[in-house]
Amino acid sequence: MSSKLNPTQREAIKYLGGPLLVLAGAGSGKTRVITHKLAYLIEECGYSPRNIAAITFTNKAANEMRERVGKIMNGRDAKGMTISTFHALGMQILREDGPLLGYKKQFSIFDSADTGKIISELLGSPDKQEIRTAQSVMSNWKAAFLTPEQAGSLAENEEQQRLALLYARYQETLRAYQSVDFDDLIRLPVELFKTHEEAHQRWQHRFRYLLIDEYQDTNDCQYQMMKLLAGPRAAVTVVGDDDQAIYAWRGASTANLQNLQNDYPQLRVIKLEQNYRSSQRILQSANHLIKNNTKLFEKNLWSEHGPGDPVRVFAAKDEENEAESVVLRLLAHKFENNTRFSDYAILYRSNHLSRVFEEQLRTHKVPYSVSGGTSFFDHAEIKDLTAYLRLIANPDDDPAFIRAITTPKRGIGNSTLEKLASYAGSRNVSLFEAAFESAMAHQLQPRQHEDLLTFCQFINRMQARAEKEPCNEVLNDLLSAIDYEAWLFDSHEPRQAENKWKNVQDFVGWMNRKSEADEKTMIAMTQLIALLNLLESRDQETDAVSLSTLHAAKGLEFGHVFLIGVEEGILPHERSEAPEQIEEERRLMYVGITRAQRSLQISYCTRRKRGKEFAGCDPSRFIAELPQADIVYTGVVTAGNAPAVTKEEGMDKLARLKAMLK
Ligand SMILES: Nc1ncnc2c1ncn2[C@@H]1O[C@H](COP(=O)(O)OP(=O)(O)OP(=O)(O)O)[C@@H](O)[C@H]1O
Ligand SMILES: [Mg+2]
Which atom of ligand 1 is nearest to the CA of 25? Predict the structure, then answer.
């Protein structure tokens, strides 16, 4: 066992006497306990990697954990070990046992953009707010294991009745597409375990030890999944920090810490108190801030690190000015300290705040990667196109088939797809293959059958061409054949459609450039598409500044952090008003601060664009809650509760740097 572990951490790692909860503050080495325990179980206790599952919250965290374990085990074989998110584990279970619940093994997974589209069609309305409300209500019902019928009978008013009916039709549609949404990835395995004892036993047997990171953010469904997997043996270690619970809005509840105590009276609790991540002033700021929350568990985090740099707070004139200052400060800091881009993170409360920062980073040629937001390849229009490409490359890709055949609409409705899917399911073939089988001709109306075949033959023709013709020709012909531009403008507002069409053109340009050097054939295209998927997990390798929402930054650490948009209305969010909501916002701020190892800069704007007009903004109340002795205010401060500026510190240097960069 590595020497870099303190006695309490060692104790947590070696404890196998029953369920264990490690409850501790940020940066105290909880995740480290999990990674070392994984290695310990395999190397010293003789567990087979196959029999261990470690669950984290994001794919990024899972990747990082896999890397960390690899290092600890020095490359020794950890193959077969499950390190994933609850959702990925759910997917693994459904891939194997989905058929027991009537799902094809190659079911597709719909993200919220996909489900939003379905709901929009079912509602007959493109109203975003309405769609979002429906998504969140249904999601809560799913998390509470309510069927549409149960939701209907519990409905208290007409609105809820209406939503329950929508829920029923939504579920039917998902079924017809042989697809599941994110909630189903957790809900269905729980249903499987409750209804199929054989499968339940098998999975319990499979995972002889469970480790769960970020436990404070599990919701009821996930908790049930954990309990069912652990079974009576209860060989589990969970680690968490109630001060970092930031998913109450998604049904997570710190009550699960209490549930654990109730369900497992033999639960052992270990606390860690030394913080190894941040310098003193950063840690002080975090501790001081979180004291304003009512506490579930007292914590006393301390650190042996030196005081470090003061936490800097600065006010910007507006968003552009904030983004420019941050990027210039970052460059100046990097220049002086000889650091890497990957040592920096820019963190924010809401996704939309990243746009101006992306622009500035691009202007200054700073490499960056965005997580927790919409990356270019996640845009609906890009996913539409890649669905066609994936289908051309592999006609058996069912999710791609469904996306392509329904975008743009070509008269092939739910009932056709439903029949196709159920036939494909019964024969265990892909949707594409099923379309050509003679049985389909009898099951469908002649007109529907013809439309279906027309589509499939179109894909076949494109495939034949893609094998020998240059990529750009095939792509351009594809776009005009499906009349994608016209469809975009028909089904979106003009500005939105323009943006989307521009993205499509960027994408086509990118594909052409990439394929130019290659053979420009089908093979090249397939490889490019594989590359697209690689791009999604690329951020780890490259030296890039991380742009991330606070939610997605949980569990990660960075040398230098910029926390931006720290204003009333943003953090705390304007929709968070109730005291417990403010506390959750404060925990978000706490998560943000505690990501920083060596330096932390907090910024806010004194005015911000609201539609076409500028509106004044106030610094977040959380800034006033920081220990003022550890803070230096820089830049212009106009309104609000922050002390007046003492010096325009750093601005000279920035001006010089700016001149240099020009
Ligand atoms: N005993 C130790 N000696 C030296 N470094 C340590 C020790 N324990 C943890 N660390 C380091 O401290 C940092 C924080 O550890 P880790 O990420 O495991 O904390 P955490 O409790 O999971 O934090 P968070 O609550 O943010 O998820 C990491 O860089 C880790 O390598
Ligand atoms: Mg952690």
Answer: 25
Atom 16 of ligand 1: nearest residue by CA position: 29
Number of other residues whose CB lies within 10 A of the CB of residue 258: 11
Nearest-angstrom CA–CA distance, 445 and 597? 65
Ligand 1-lining residues (CB < 6 angstroms) = 4-6, 9, 24, 26-32, 241, 244, 276-277, 555, 557, 594
CA of 366 to the centre of ligand 1 (A): 29
Q: How long is the chain?
A: 662
For ligand 1, atom 15, name the residue with the nearest CA: 29
* Domain limits, the chain: 7-94+190-272, 108-177, 302-367+542-661, 377-537
Q: What residues have CB less than 8 Å from 656, skipping those under 6 apart?
A: none
Q: What is the ipTM of this complex?
A: 0.99
Distance 67 CA to ligand 1 centre (A): 15
At 500, list the tokens.
């989307």
Q: What is the pLDDT of residue 530?
A: 44
Would you tell me how many other CB atoms lie within 10 Å of the CB of residue 615? 10
Residue type, 359: E
Q: What is the pLDDT of residue 538?
A: 40
CA dist 139 and 163 (Å) reads: 12
Rounded to an integer, what distance in angstroms lies between the CA atom of residue 543 and that of residue 366? 10
Give the ligand with the smallest distance to the CA of 28: 1
Name residue 242's amino acid: D
Residue 15 has pLDDT above 60, yes or no: yes
Of the CA atoms within 13 Å of residue 508, those in its CB half-sphere come to 20
Which residue has its alpha carbon closest to ligand 1 atom 23? 27
Q: Report the CATH architecture of 108-177.
A: Orthogonal Bundle (1.10)
Which residue from 194, 190, 246, 270 is spatially nearest to 222, judged by alpha carbons?
190
Domains 7-94+190-272 and 302-367+542-661 in one fold: yes
Q: Specify the amino acid at residue 21.
A: L
Q: 377-537 — its CATH code?
A: 1.10.486.10
Question: For residues 495 and 493, what is the distance between their CA atoms, to the nearest angstrom?
Answer: 6
Find the mean pLDDT for residues 341-348: 96
Distance between Cα 579 and ligand 2 center (Å): 27
**pLDDT greater at residue 511 or residue 591:** 591
Mapping DSSP to helix (H, G, I), strand (E, B) and coil, where does residue 68 land? helix
Question: Can you say which residues are annotated as belonging to the binding site for ATP?
Answer: 24-31, 277
**Ligand 1 atom with least separation from CA of 591:** 26
Give pLDDT, residue 160.
Answer: 92
Q: Which two tokens stand for residue 312?
A: 């800097």
The pick from 30, 71, 277, 595 for probing ligand 1's pocket by mutation, whose C-beta has the most ligand atoms within 8 angstroms, reads 277
Nearest CA to ligand 1 atom 14: 27
pTM to 2 decimal places: 0.76
- Nearest atom in ligand 1 to the alpha carbon of residue 272 is 21
pLDDT score, position 370: 84
- Which CATH superfamily groups domain 7-94+190-272? P-loop containing nucleotide triphosphate hydrolases (3.40.50.300)
Q: Specify whether domain 302-367+542-661 bears CATH 3.40.50.300.
A: yes
Residues designated catalytic: 30-31, 213-214, 244, 595
- Give the Å distance between the CA of 31 and the centre of ligand 1: 7
What is the band of 460 on the pLDDT scale with cuts at 50, 70, 90? very high
Ligand 1: which atom is nearest the Cα of residue 275? Answer: 12
Q: Token pair of 51, please?
A: 């029999």
Q: Could you read off the pLDDT of 22-73 as tens digits, one per residue?
A: 999 999 999 999 999 999 999 999 999 999 999 998 777 887 888 888 888 8
